[in-house]
Amino acid sequence: MRIAYLSIGGHIHTERWLRFFVDRGHDVHLMTVQPAPIEGVKLYDIRTGIPFKALHYAVALREVKRILAEIQPDLLHTHFLTGYGYWGVFSGFHPNILTVWGDDVYLTPHTSFLKGWLARMALRGADLVTGDSDDILEHAIAMGAEREACHVIQWGVDLAAFRPDAPSDVREQLGIPADSPVVISIRSFTQPYYNIDVIVRAIPGILEKRPDTHFIIAGNEGDDTEFRALAGELSIDDRAHFVGKIPHEELPGYLVASDAFLSVPSVDATAVSLLEAMACGTPVVVSSLDSALEWVTDGKNGLVVTPRDQGALESAVLQLLDSPERRREFGTITAGMVRERADHDAHMSRMEELCVELVERWRKTSGTS
Fold first, then answer.
1. Is the Cβ–Cβ distance between 206 and 183 less than 8 Å?
2. Which candidate, 61, 62, 68, 85, places its Cα nearest to that of 30?
3. d(CA 190, CA 115)
4. pTM (two decimals)
5. CA-CA distance, 275 to 262, in Å (whole number)?
6. Alpha helices in 157-195 (DSSP H)
7. Spatial CA neighbour of 281 closest among 326, 335, 321
């Protein structure tokens, strides 16, 4: 198939998704306003340089239509409901698939009437909608997506890399003693709803009872300056290791070196980093979001806290650090769950099947060969 994508360039989610289809022999094209090369993918920069947003979208839409007419793909696949989703639906191209990510469903459509209307248009205009949890798809359906057209597709975990016995020299790199507990957060610094400030503020309370604990604070996106400054104000610089963006191929080493993984946002879909931690057998603390509760049951295979409840977060981390047996039990359960339910290759293969089925169905109904 020749597949045209509209998606966020330079993002690990986009890269992994497109690389799978390239490796399967498909002809893959990417239109984006954040261009970054992906091996085997033909890239189209649709930036306009126009500061006025409405005019920018209109001019970029004209370019999207021109590119689609030029390459004549079998399928248009748009990632991210807001922004890219607008171009996808108003391109008028069919068949089209829309994959929703997170705040593009949970937050942005509810910030204005216009954004809500555009989101509903994009969802209603898609021939297929995918998301990584039942919860995010229910929100999409509430805004107009057809239930029969919705499918759960995980971004998925590379199970060959993310496993409990993955090699690691992270403790040595960071100067952390072999017998010191390690707590890790690798959520992005870009949005306040990831609650990195709460994690940093919880550190002194944890150190009061477990002074030997070390914390690794990483983020795939954004600037950690304000959190470093907060750590300085709290006098925890010697225990908080800010490591910036961890290359994806190095991430398993960080996860297996850790005794607890924290993912406590106020809004989120199924975080890939959460599933990767689970695959490595790292016990998790998550916030009480429906998307997380599809994976974690409090006290059974992890611990659940209310978003932005610093005291509850401190207590949950200390519970894990004080119980090696519980950590092992949780890690064993979650590693098995991810192997069963979130294999990247299995979900991408299912996505490929859905693409082929949609293209064949569209050809039959439209009378094209």
1. yes
2. 68
3. 21
4. 0.91
5. 12
6. 170-174
7. 335
- Map residue 83 onto helix, strand or coil: coil
Task: Identify the structural domains of the chain with CATH numbers, from first to last.
Answer: 2-156+344-366 (3.40.50.2000), 170-341 (3.40.50.2000)
Do 161 and 137 contact (CB within 8 A), yes or no? no
Q: Which residue, chain included where needed, has tokens 């859905």?
A: 354
Structure-block tokens of residue 6? 């509209």
Encoded amino acid at 53, one letter: K
Query: Could you tell me the mean pLDDT of each successive run of 10 residues in the chain, 369 residues long?
Result: 96 95 98 96 96 92 97 98 96 97 95 96 97 96 96 96 96 96 94 95 97 95 93 95 94 97 94 96 97 96 97 98 96 97 97 97 79
> Nearest to residue 158, comparing CAs of 35, 286, 258, 276?
276
Q: What CA–CA distance (Å, rounded) separates 252 from 246?
A: 10
Instruction: Look at the block and give the residue holding tokens 């289809």.
Output: 21
If one counts every other C-beta atom within 10 angstroms of the C-beta of residue 298, the result is 14
List the strands of the sheet with 42-45, edge to edge. Answer: 42-45, 27-32, 2-6, 75-79, 96-99, 128-131, 150-152
Sorted by sequence, the CB contacts under 8 Å of residue 157 that are 6+ apart come out as 272, 275, 276, 279, 338, 342, 343, 344
